[in-house]
Structure formats: C-alpha cells, structure tokens
Task: inverse folding
C-alpha cells in the first residue's frame, strides 16, 4: 500500500548544481502536483499534471521543470539550484482535478542549497 | 486576493484537554474546505472535506465546522492525545472556471503541542 513515494528524503546541493526529485504513485491517479513548503507559509504550487503528457505551471514555477511520461511518475527537476530553493518539497496526487477528490501527499524532500 | 489565514500560529495544551483551531478564508469562488494533519517530517494527511452545504463533519475526535456566510471554519479536537501533536492545515479549494481544475489554497497551519 505505497501511495505516493518521494525520493530522496534529504538532499544538499551546491549553488548551480542540478538534480531531480522523484515522485511515484501507485493509485492510478490522473492529477499530480508539486508543492514547496516554507516556514510560516502555506504550501505553494510549483507545477501540476492532469495526465500523462500534460503539464502546466503553478504559482511558483521559475527554476523548475517537470515531465509526465507515465501515469505513475512525475519528476521535478531543478535546473540550476539557488539558495532561494531551499525548502521542503511535497508531491501530491489526486484521482483527478475535480472538486472533492482527496489529495494524497508523499513524505517530502528536504532540500538545502548552499 | 485568495487567502487562508489560521490562528493561533501555535498552541500548547495538556493531554486530555480539548482545543479549537480557527481558519478564515477569502477564497472565491469557493468549492470546498479541507483540514489536514501534518506530523513532523511527514506529508499532510486528510482529516475532513466539507462542501458549501455542510456545516459540520467529524472524524473520530476531530470535528470540523464551516460557516460559509462568514467564511470561517474551525477544527475542534476532543480529549487530546500526545499523538495529536502536529501541524493542522486548513485548505480551501477554488471552484474552477469551465474546463479547469480545482486549485487548492493552503493556510500556513497551526502547530499544536500536547504535553503530558
């Protein structure tokens, strides 16, 4: 009963490095999304996908890329890490993007950029 | 501007006591309101989802209320346990325009500590 699985759990990067945060779900959900959580703020949407091959930007997309080649996987790429990207990142999935569908979250990736 | 504000920011209570967390929102058009529990180092887990027509919903010792007229919600925790120590996040779902998807607006959360 895996649900939403994120890897890695912790990561330290140097400024300018790139990396990919992995997210996989085994619930056959259409809708997947990435959020960042910063102290004193609510989760903010980075990118989302409504199905394989379809992605769109959220409210804070700059510096991040996503792709959705399969229903299960939704990786988040940091192109050139900056200290402002130090945060906790959560992947979430929902059956679809409609009104009352429950969102399931991964355990998070704590990223520090030095 | 669509916003969700929660109070208090943090709260300490003794085990066995009750507490109430508050959520005010200025989200329009409104679709539903959710409460999540987030344990330290974990992702949020859903407690309740309430639509416009629902004014109370319970999940065990957790009871959420919604007043859509005043745009306020509360989460009441009864007979608190040490395992209730967590952050509680209020989330309001925007009703999308035609063909769109429900965007979630997150509050910053209330951090609850239950002490023995």
Result:
């Amino acid at each position: 009963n895996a649900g939403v699985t994120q890897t890695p759990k912790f990561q330290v990067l140097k400024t300018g490095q790139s990396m990919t945060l992995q997210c996989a779900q085994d619930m056959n959900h259409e809708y997947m999304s990435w959020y960042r959580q910063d102290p004193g703020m609510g989760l903010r949407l980075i990118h989302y996908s409504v199905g394989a091959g379809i992605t769109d930007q959220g409210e804070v997309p700059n510096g991040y890329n996503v792709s959705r080649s399969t229903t299960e996987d939704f990786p988040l790429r940091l192109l050139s890490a900056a200290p402002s990207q130090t945060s906790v990142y959560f992947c979430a999935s929902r059956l679809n993007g409609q009104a009352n569908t429950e969102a399931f979250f991964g355990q998070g990736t704590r990223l520090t950029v030095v | 501007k669509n916003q969700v504000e929660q109070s208090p920011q943090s709260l300490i209570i003794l085990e066995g006591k009750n507490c109430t967390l508050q959520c005010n929102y200025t989200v329009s058009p409104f679709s539903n309101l959710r409460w999540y529990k987030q344990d330290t180092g974990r992702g949020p887990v859903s407690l309740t989802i309430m639509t416009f027509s629902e004014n109370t919903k319970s999940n065990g010792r957790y009871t959420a209320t919604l007043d859509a007229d005043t745009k306020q919600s509360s989460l009441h925790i009864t007979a608190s346990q040490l395992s209730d120590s967590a952050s509680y996040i209020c989330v309001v779902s925007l009703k999308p325009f035609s063909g769109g998807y429900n965007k979630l607006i997150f509050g910053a959360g209330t951090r609850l500590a239950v002490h023995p």
User: Anything to note?
Assistant: DSSP finds no helices and eleven strands in chain A. The first strand of chain A starts at residue 4 and ends at 7. The mean pLDDT of chain A is 95.
